[in-house]
Specification:
heterodimer, A: alpha/beta, 2 domains, seven-stranded mixed sheet, B: alpha/beta, Rossmann fold, 9 strands, binds thiamine diphosphate, binds magnesium ion
Amino acid sequence: MARIFMKGNEAIAEAAVRAGCRFYAGYPITPQNEIPEYMARRLPEVGGNFVQGESEVASINLVYGSAQTGTRSMTSSSSCGISLMSEGISFIASARIPAVYVNVARGGPGIGAIQPAQQDYLQATKASGNGGFRMIVLAPYDVQEAVDMTYAAFDIADRDRNPVLILADGVLGTIMEPIMLPEEKSPEEVKALKDAKRNWALVGHRPDEKRAMIEPGRFAGQEPANIENAKLYETWDKDIQVEEYLIDDAEVVIAAYGISARIAKSAISLLRKDGYKVGLIRPKTVSPFPYASFANLDFGKVKAILDVEMSIPAQMIWDVQYAVRGRCPIETTLRSGGEIMGRDQILKAAKELCER
Amino acid sequence: MEQLVYKRTSLIRPDTSSGFCPGCMHSTVCKLIGEVIEDLHIEDKVAVVFGVGCNGLAMNYLTFDNTTSPHGRACAVANGVKKSSPETIVFTYQGDGDLGSIGLGETVAAANRGDNISVIFVNNGIYGMTGGQMAPTTLIGMKATTAPQGRKAELHGYPMHMCELLDSLTAPVYLERVSCNTAANVIKTRKAMKKAFQNQIDGKGFSMVEIVTTCPTNWGYSTLDALTFLEEEMFKEYPLGVIRDKTEGGK
Ligand SMILES: Cc1ncc(C[n+]2csc(CCOP(=O)(O)OP(=O)(O)O)c2C)c(N)n1
Ligand SMILES: [Mg+2]
């Protein structure tokens, strides 16, 4: 398959269609508008449906409804729009409905800058809605990974009957890069994926069949469902994805995900040329988090961890601290509010730690 | 010769009680829903999207596919279902707080798009499930736990008329207000529901049946006094009848 040049948002949308997504609902918000715009053009070509929701609240509920029919369904938004979806996401997780959504994150809190940021980490990984449910959250760091993760997200969602979040940011959404697109599922495959869910899907059942009863929580007696869900979350160790980059001899280990990690990698190549022993641990799944990668570091060698995030105050640092448990200092270098991480800033912070 | 003239709808479980309060018209509404589904022979392709409110008590009681939406979002959920499973006959079952307050946006947008769904809207002028707080439909002067002195226009505005509000839009195909206080009105409600479902089957678009009902428990009336209040006060504010009918032969 040929390499093509595509903008992140459009590549994500195309990957979703190729994965068999046949329903998208969304509300305009920068920096992800190309996703709904692309879906509005593309979905009708494959017999799918695009709805411009009247709000993010409506959009997530349109997806909740569509996904209940067994149709692969998706929405996307950015930061404050994602906040508006949180009740719906909680319902989807509670009712155990497969769905995929994308946060092309921008600044915050509040309406935030429209430029890229990573200020939704804790919301994305710990509490995307009320009630203590969990989700697998994939954090791409280039457009190819955004494509591959979006494609895979639909399989994970179906496997677990649970929402899956792609946590991207405004850089990834708007940058153009050469990519390889995954294979497009055939109409027969898409139909088979839907039909496989018919036994529980809200499509109408004959009176002699078991009816579909989608229960997003109950007035009473919800605990058994919570226990079931907790069991599912415990199976996710196998789903952890992490990149450990040049950490074997590292004296300073950078902790970063998404676009910050990409910039950090570029800084590391320069640092290495100058003889600084700096490595990177990059969680690709930020939930479940690769705690072991940090916990298993050789703390005889590692002088410090440098947490690099586009969030002030830092957020992922909570997970890093949880894994490191005080065995080495954790310092930060941060930007936020739509200011993109600078490579020089990372160089300076890492050198200081190496020379400590 | 014996002739069967009436039987209980098979779409209500015989072994479960509904949980509705005595005198509540939700039970009649549920019965009519079951009968209409049987009339139309759509038992195998019907699905209800419950709103959040007393209607949700029917969850364990109606025997066909069902789901619950977040409070107010039933029309959005139903449209999502319909778009991705066009052969499914999907309807929402919502209260006045659900449809007219928290879900006003979703209701108006679905009606305005002409989404091909049917809406069963139970207007009891109050928040029943949560214990009698003021609804957008509460009458002027009517007491609610959050309007202890009664609804005051200067403070709370006026009762909202959802059928008339939606009648200002171009797309909706059918809007009718009915009640279940008399046998004649029950028959009208059944007809209206059937029409709302038939419109969807025929692909005509958005239909809503508003059923003006009592809530003896939260109105603080006996069943009979609640009926009197319904007929003397509620019907004055919410006159029964067809508000919009764009189907053939309609007005
Ligand atoms: C987001 C949210 N807000 C509030 C509630 C609490 N709540 C449950 S039912 C209800 C009122 C429903 O009133 P109405 O729609 O009129 O239905 P009724 O019970 O009167 O039939 C409210 C406010 C909720 N479940 N979810
Ligand atoms: Mg009510």
